[in-house]
Amino acid sequence: MIRDPKDLPRYNAAERANHWVTGICFILLALSGLAFFHPAFYPLVQLFGGGAWARIIHPYLGVILGIAFVVMFFRFWQLNLINDADREWLTRVGEMIEGNDHNMPEQGKYNAGQKMVFWSMAVCVSALVISGLLMWRAYFNFPVGIVRLAAVVHAAAATIMILVAIVHVYAAIWTKGTIRAMWYGTVTRAWAKQHHRAWYRQMTGK
Amino acid sequence: MTNHWVDIKNADLILVMGGNPAEAHPCGFKWAIEAKKTRKAKLVVVDPRFNRTASVADFYAPLRSGSDIAFLGGVINYLIANDKIHKDYVKAYTNASFLVDPGFKFSDGLFSGYNEEKRSYDKGSWSYQLDKDGYAKIDESWQDPNCVWQLMKAHYARYTPEMVAKVCGTPKESFLKVCEYIAETAAPNKTMTSLYALGWTEHSVGSQNIRCMAMIQLLLGNMGMAGGGINALRGHSNVQGITDFALYAQQLPGYLAAPTDADKDIKSFLEKKTTKALRPGQMNFYQNFPKWYVSLQKAWWGDAATKDNGFAFDYMPKLAGASDVLSIFDQMYQGKINGFLCQGFNPLASVANKKKVSDALAKLKYMVVMDPLATDTSEFWKPYGEFNEVDPAKIPTEVFRLPTSLFAETAGSFTNSGRVILWRWKAAEPPGDAKDDTEIMATLFLKLKEMYAKDGGAFAEPIQKLTWAYRIPNKPSPEELMMEYNGKALADVVDPKDATKVLVKAGDQLPSFAMLRDDGTTTCGNWIYCGVWSQAGNNSARRDNSDPSGLGQTLNWGFAWPVNRRILYNRASADPSGKPWDPKRTVLRWTGKVWGGNDIPDMRPDAAPEENVMPFIMNPEGVARLFARDLMAEGPFPEHYEPFETPLEANPMHPQNPKAKSNPAARVYKGDMEAFGNAKDFPYVATTYRLTEHFHFWTKQSLVNAIMQPEHFVEIGEELAKEKGIAAGDRVKVRSNRGFIKAVAVVTKRIKAFDIDGKKVHTVGIPIHFGFKGATKPGFITNTLTPFVGDANTQTPEYKAFLVNIEKA
Amino acid sequence: MALQSLDIKQRSATTTPAPQARQTMEIAKLIDVSACIGCKACQVACMEWNDVREEVGHNVGVYDNPTDLTENAWTVMRFTEVEENNKLEWLIRKDGCMHCSDPGCLKSCPAPGAIIQYSNGVVDFHQENCIGCGYCVTGCPFNVPRISKKDNKAYKCTLCSDRLAVNQAPACVKACPTGAIEFGSKEDMKDYAGKRIADLKERGYDKAGLYDPPGVGGTHVMYVLHHADRPGLYAGLPENPSISPLVSLWKGATKPLATFALGLAALGSLFHYVIKGPNEVAREIEEEIEKEDAS
């Protein structure tokens, strides 16, 4: 891909770093968490130096992710407020999945799908961090009833989080020209015009 | 124990009073549980506290600490009033029918002959009426007003259930319920076992507590029976052994009376100690006293003990006066003792009134502590903050500590509460420089002997001529010692009926004390242990637990003194005609020619029932004593006296007689009477006791025990706690007139306030075990609080009932 | 405490069955609370046999010490004073692992082989496989496992599996002076308990009974209780213990379902791509931009 000075800046360096800190933590958390979740995934602990290390590292990664996500949340939350166009986009999401975006309403920096990803991640991360802390035996010893509830919440939230992340990653892969926004911060004007026309207009004044 | 541990399983009723076996004897207590499981036995506990034993009991009744005789006297009254007596037994086997000297009186709490100044009795009138042959007169009809039965009946008629409730604080219904349980065992085929320990002995009326129960057991016909008896649960694993070997200085091994300064020669001494039968045809076993005594002299001084020198009677040390633990420490306190060999003993922690003991030790020139552990006593001079406030600069006592091996680090024997002598083998080497006690004592002895030989000295013979035939002179082996005290024949021992029949060959170990002779031809260091190491070998090492009796008699398991007999007075388990009272639990029966059954007969083996030889062979009467003659210090019948520190103004039995408030015959030293506290300043009854988790003052030094019970505590009832604003876990200060301790409060439902004649009396329970040395949290010594007064007969201190006050620390 | 001389019935975090050809006897430890005097000999025996030592603690106003189960105290006596109808009872219960037939700890454990159930019924922790997550604590209906602060491994009563493997009774059973702890086949223990219960009923404990809670499939440590109708009296022994529904949810259906969902999402994405192809910028728009740039 050729970088063009006229490409539109989508994320600055700090935002990208923030995203990747969160992303890396998430991947590691998902891998180690899955290892504890189902025996089928247990061999994943080898990535971390064994079961005990996976157990030790997991919650610290969770803390880092939590902090990174909070920062990211405050960077982006206003851009993710749902508006009427989003609601319409959501009613037509089936066309989008079909790959037919001709009739989709014009989108700002984020489309409604992305916004849904944002908010579901916000909810999941909150649930995961809180329930995770409740389960963190190295430091805390909460009443067993609460810990049991936390365990269920943690598992459920993690499942949703991973599902959302799959959607998030797939969407980035599926929509060509997207990933570079998180690599070096810019997207092509054509990409912006195609996928985020309102944002494109705002950026270019056209 | 008249019976033995395993025999508890044969009981129908287990009465625990004056003890807490689940707490202090958990291993032996298995037999109480066994009786419950297999015989449907009932377990009844009477105690100031609802204790661990009570937790598995069928019935619990509370009583104020120090009021046991009132309770037991009430039981006697109940049994007589309700005719719950094993009449045939009482008639045949007790002195109920004996006539007592008409001069014997009891009025207002005192028996005839009291001397207030000396605090003792002239016991002249405490005796039987004798006939011209010197035999006691009897009235088979029990009608004579001077017969024991009538006197006893009158004496205990005052102990009504109402009086019991008033003195003991036991609710009347609870008392009567206990009486009903007890009364059931008056049936010839029902037995009650009485389990007691220091909860009875550690009172100023300790011996009479036990006597009172002995009387009850006689009235019920439970002595000599399987599942019956009076069973003292001994504390230390070998305290029975040490008692058998002259724990008390006024006795020689085997409970032989020791001569005193007044005994000038062996002839008069033996005459004095040899009893005459008080009824015709009785065994009067003490007639053999000369055989036992002469054999002891021969064991100790061998060839130097000859007929001509009275078997070296002069070598035997003669007592000048009291030498019990309280008197020794009082003399030390008076500055009359220079040196103290403290062997396996931690008196700073275990003797009453720590301050007095500490002051006494500070008056010594030197003290040698022989112990496996660094005891509190060995550091009595060392400040441990408020736990032991002393000024070493003011204590001149030089202390030497000689480490000794622990029981598992040396071979030897233990004698358990059931009188069973069990050999034990060395399990480990002692650490460091620790040596066996015997080696230290032998080395010391040999050094003294050498010094006497070199330097001379007054009356060296007893030391120079002491028998010392050990293979390694400074290390007498436990085997050699046991063989020595078992005794051997110095010449052939022949049958007294047939001089041609040799019973024991010269040089052989003796099989039984029946072989002892008073002519110097036998040796025996402890007559009751004779037979433990016979020609057959070490009988205490036998480990055959086969039990054809089904009663747990196991006659081939170790060796029980005397002569391997497991149940004392077992002749009384059969009726006068020789048939067992309960054929299902036959201990002994007359086979037609000899006594047979499941035990060694406590009777001449061929004494046919028609000969009327009665079962209590050690008594010159041949029968058991409901009336104790002159053998107790404070009276022939137990009477309730208040503890020396009592919450009451007067003895409720004798409110008008201050002389009868506390034991009138108990010895009180100068200064100790003043150190008693009164109920105004110290309103609560304190009682001290042991916990399962610890053993005396040893195990506070052991990590595992310290983990189980880490810190000193006191127990109080919820009501008192509320009054004083004390919550469980608070630190409290407990004061008596002699000092204070601080500990953690355990607030419990298990200690209740007593209603004593309308007055509310609270109990404060104080475990011992803790001190300033050890793995447990540093603590105070409980005996800081206890009074320096003892039982009138044994001088065992009154650890179980005294007065304190308590407040939040 | 790894011990392969006992047959394994269940293994934590293992989805395939253990060898099942050999059938061994189910065992049980029976604690007769009515014969227990709270002497703590079992606690001492446990510490000594297993070579664990708790720290010397404090008295907190009760007889209990150590005051709770810890990684070094695998069994503790719990003393409760109960007073009803003017009758005082001092109930003393030996607390520790119940060795459930359906063990919540094993169900919760994520580490393969960290928790083992032997075919004799003993549930054992194999610390070398333990990762220290504490899920066993979360899963246990009796609040038994403890995580060591030193090594972050979970510890609890092993029922002396090492002794059982060489035909010795557990140390606590051996040490119990009153026979309040008996050990044998589960069947024999139930028979024996029946006799004890009959005896207790004769002594007026109408509600005496056996505590072998069916909610966890029965246990291999059972109690004879004088008040079997109210186990809660005994320092909060659970009335009707079972694995918490939350734990079942967490470790039950959700596991395969969620795994399936995740797989579906991943595969769905893949096939979506394969079927629909990438979502690329439309040629017209590219051209529009190129045109703009050219102009």
Automatic annotation (TrEMBL), chain A:
Gene Ontology MF: a single term: electron transfer activity
Subcellular location(s) of the protein: Cell membrane
Cofactor dependency: heme
Domain called Cytochrome b561 bacterial/Ni-hydrogenase: residue spans: 10-185
Domain of life the protein comes from: Bacteria
Record's keyword terms, sorted: Cell membrane, Electron transport, Heme, Iron, Membrane, Metal-binding, Transmembrane, Transmembrane helix, Transport
SUPFAM superfamilies the UniProt entry points to: Transmembrane di-heme cytochromes
Keyword hit for Cell membrane: yes
Cellular component, GO annotation: formate dehydrogenase complex; plasma membrane
Transmembrane region(s): 20-37, 57-77, 117-139, 151-173
GO BP, one annotated term: respiratory electron transport chain
Topological relation to the membrane, as annotated: Multi-pass membrane protein
Family, similarity comment: Belongs to the formate dehydrogenase gamma subunit family.
Name used for this protein in its record: Formate dehydrogenase subunit gamma
TrEMBL record, chain B:
Entries under InterPro entries matching the protein: Asp_de-COase-like_dom_sf (IPR009010), Formate-DH-alph_fdnG (IPR006443), MoPterin_dinucl-bd_dom (IPR006657), Mopterin_OxRdtase (IPR006656)
Record-level GO BP terms: anaerobic respiration
Span of domain Molybdopterin oxidoreductase: 2-377
Protein's recorded name: Formate dehydrogenase (Quinone-dependent) catalytic subunit
Lineage of the organism: Bacteria, Pseudomonadati, Pseudomonadota, Betaproteobacteria, Rhodocyclales
Gene Ontology MF, one: formate dehydrogenase (NAD+) activity
Keyword ATP-binding: no
Cofactor: [4Fe-4S] cluster
One GO cellular component, as annotated: periplasmic space
Major location (coarse): periplasm
Gene3D superfamilies cross-referenced by the UniProt entry: 2.40.40.20, 3.40.50.740, Dimethylsulfoxide Reductase, domain 2
Stretches assigned to the Molybdopterin dinucleotide-binding domain: 685-802
Keyword presence, Glycosyltransferase: no
Organism: Propionivibrio dicarboxylicus
Stretches assigned to coiled coil: none
Name of a matching Pfam family: Molydop_binding
Domain of life according to the entry: Bacteria
NCBIfam families: formate-DH-alph
CDD domains cross-referenced by the UniProt entry: MopB_CT_Formate-Dh-Na-like
Family affiliation: Belongs to the prokaryotic molybdopterin-containing oxidoreductase family.
Subcellular location: Periplasm
Keywords: 4Fe-4S, Iron, Iron-sulfur, Metal-binding, Oxidoreductase, Periplasm, Selenocysteine, Signal
UniProtKB/TrEMBL annotation, chain C:
UniProt GO MF annotations: 4 iron, 4 sulfur cluster binding; metal ion binding
Name of a matching Pfam family: Form-deh_trans
Positions that bind [4Fe-4S] cluster 2: 46, 157, 160, 172
Keywords: 4Fe-4S, Cell membrane, Electron transport, Iron, Iron-sulfur, Membrane, Metal-binding, Repeat, Transmembrane, Transport
GO biological process entries: cellular respiration; formate oxidation
Protein name per Swiss-Prot or TrEMBL: Formate dehydrogenase (Quinone-dependent) iron-sulfur subunit
Essential cofactor(s): [4Fe-4S] cluster
CDD domains: FDH-N (cd10558)
Lineage top rank: taxon: Bacteria
Lineage, top ranks: Bacteria, Pseudomonadati, Pseudomonadota, Betaproteobacteria, Rhodocyclales
Bias type Low complexity, positions: 11-20
